[in-house]
Amino acid sequence: MFDTILIANRGEIACRVIKTARRMGIRTVAVYSEADAGARHVRLADEAVCIGPAAARESYLVADRIVAACKQTGAQAVHPGYGFLSENEEFAETLAANGIVFVGPPVSAIRAMGLKSESKKLMEKAGVPLTPGYHGDDQDPAHLRAQADAIGYPVLIKASAGGGGKGMRAVWKGEDFADALASCQREALSSFGDAHVLVEKYLQRPRHIEIQVFGDTQGNCVYLFERDCSVQRRHQKVLEEAPAPGMTPERRAAMGKAAVDAARAVGYVGAGTVEFIANQDGSFYFMEMNTRLQVEHPVTEMITGLDLVEWQLRVAAGEALPLTQEQLSIRGHALEARIYAEDPDKGFLPSTGRLLHLSPPEESLHVRVDTGVEQGDEITPHYDPMIAKLIVWDETRERALARMLQALARYRVVGVSNNVGFLSRLVACPAFASADLDTGLIEREQGFLFPGDAEPPAEAWLAAALAELLREREDAGEAAARDADPFSPWHGRDGWRLNSAARRALVFRSGEAEKAVAVAYEGEGFLLELEGRGVRAHGALGAASTLRADFAGKRINATVVVAGEKRHVFLHGRAFVLAAVDPLYHAGEGGGAEGGLTAPMPGKVIALVAAEGSTVEKGAPLLILEAMKMEHTIAAPCKGTVKAFRFGVGDQVADGAELVEFEAAR
Ligand code: MV4
């Protein structure tokens, strides 16, 4: 076994490989770009080497830099992860030429599976079922038309050099074939430089089912059952699961045999995945073979109890497969959701920024989080904006679904847009929950998946208000503890007032909705009034911005994360974003930072909080106005000096009256 391995990747897969290598007592070397200097995989590795600037083509994709890092650190093997150079023949050859083991298949297998059209010929020879159609070299339009007629419509015309859904065109009736073919050939030539096409029976509502295979250098080859990856969006997997719903033992054995036959046909060694497209009746056809460890491999690990990276390292070190086919079995059901920094409401546009708050669900036998980032890390535009993979397991699919919903509800992300809410709706959507799966599910369920900006429920507004009040009370307590006169009444946040308990309003906005939560202090608690409905409320803030609240006797657990004026409220498994609005906080802005602060509405001055002549910070309370039966704080628009108050306590002021002469700090 190797003493030292180098992981030629970043993010969650690098962290994941390091984790297994460390458990096996293997020293780990990370490589990183300048942008990743503080990344988690660098922190986890035993040693790390900077291999260039942020751009992947100048760092993670530079084979020579990786070879140099191996020589510098004595790494005997390189794990490529997925993406980057993981299926790059030249990279594998460069490593071999330098006497460094590539943790993956032989170059010949990468090459054989690299060309989609070549791989189909190989599969045909190996008896692996192909989609009914014509994959030949005769590209004469009349010949192809005759083939399409023989297959039966609808057919799919595909660019042979295409892949990932590019250059595919469905044809529903014969008379449309010629035009569609010409258009497909033109597009194939311009996109791939190769006009060669194939014609197949068009599978409507197909499922994507893939088989994990593993070969060793002693001629053993096994399959580790299937994964269903039908839930995709624009050919990107979103949710994956194992085993595939509705799979029968017979069908599983047939697909497993076909996958092993495919692997053997190319002398496969290491972890590989044979992807099939399947009809709803279960008939399946070879699509392609991926010659690397897949992103979704954890669902296979969860139902077999195996560590596929350990298998990869053992096989790369020349060991035989740890188990035979007969010793492999399935237990339970696993699901994986890919947590991304992207905005589902903006066409899944990637989102970059700092992870101000990142609180994944607690890991257990049932919950696994593979992540490459921690709170405070930056999601940059340089790389794939994956935050983590959330994997859950339970005895049945139904219970695994419940685990996933619960885990997603506890996955709190603030600082970048993210798809956690979308994933929750996807897992909860009836079609998915009932395993009515096919690759068009997301497209078909748009209505359910994109409900629009539903207004936050009352409890979200109340939770934001209660958290605000509790946070103020905490801050006041801390200020008092620091103050020379800790018992000064100004530190009190119990709302005490000379003639009656204070009332005030906390205003929040969400989208177009703006609501005021009226607050009356009641001893340890509060009376909150929202849209005319009063609720007695009390609660406590906990670690990681958690809030245990009691609203009129109903107890709820929420999380309220403050980010600037935003209040990210996580409640009942959903995330809401409210913005705190103090209608008077900006009172001074109209009059500019210089000069007085004017009354935004008629009212009565009930307190002068700052001292005349004092210098205050931006946002410091200057005076309190009572208006509309509520208290409003007039705050400093910026750092500056309170020159003079224009009114005293008890004075009535008119709308627009100048309240304070304030001089901004230079
Ligand atoms: C198909 C098909 C229907 N009928 N072939 C998409 C890209 C490549 N993986 C092959 N793909 C398809 N080939 C026939 N004869 C539908 C798809 C397809 C698809 C396949 C698997 C996973 C997701 C998909 C999304 C759209 C279309």
Q: How do you describe this structure in short?
A:
The protein is of the alpha+beta class and 666 residues long. It folds into six domains: 4-103, 3-Layer(aba) Sandwich (Rossmann fold); 132-201, Dna Ligase, domain 1, CATH 3.30.1490; 204-329, ATP-grasp fold, B domain (D-amino Acid Aminotransferase, Chain A, domain 1, 2-Layer Sandwich), CATH 3.30.470; 332-452, 2-Layer Sandwich (D-amino Acid Aminotransferase, Chain A, domain 1), CATH 3.30.470.20; 458-581, Glycoprotein, Type 4 Pilin (2-Layer Sandwich); 596-664, OB fold (Dihydrolipoamide Acetyltransferase, E2P) (Beta Barrel).
Low-pLDDT residue spans: 585-596
- Report the end-to-end length measured between terminal Cα atoms: 67 Å
Radius of gyration: 31 Å
CATH topology of the largest domain: D-amino Acid Aminotransferase, Chain A, domain 1
β content, as a range?
25-35%
Bound molecules: ligand MV4
Assembly state here?
single chain
Helix content: 25-40%
Strand numbers in spatial order across the main sheet: 14-13-10-11-12-15-22-20
Number of helices: 18
Cα shape: elongated
**CATH superfamily annotation of the largest domain:** ATP-grasp fold, B domain
Task: Please tell me the CATH architecture of the largest domain by its name.
Answer: 2-Layer Sandwich
